[in-house]
Design a protein that fits this description.
Elements lengths: L4 H18 L5 H7 L4 E2 L3 E2 L2
Antiparallel strand pairs: 1-2
């Protein structure tokens, strides 16, 4: 496979698993610095 999204999704899933299992944000903090989530209550998620 040459799809770069697969390893990225695997890293995110692993980071979330590590966070909830160990209560440690070592890896989720890396993700949080890179993403922005916007949600409008009336219009739904914004891209």
């Amino acid at each position: 496979m040459n799809d770069p999204c697969i390893p990225a999704a695997d890293f995110i899933a692993g980071a979330l698993h590590y966070y909830y299992r160990n209560n440690d944000d070592t890896y989720t903090s890396i993700i949080n610095e890179k993403i922005t989530l916007a949600f409008d209550y009336f219009n739904g998620p914004q891209k």
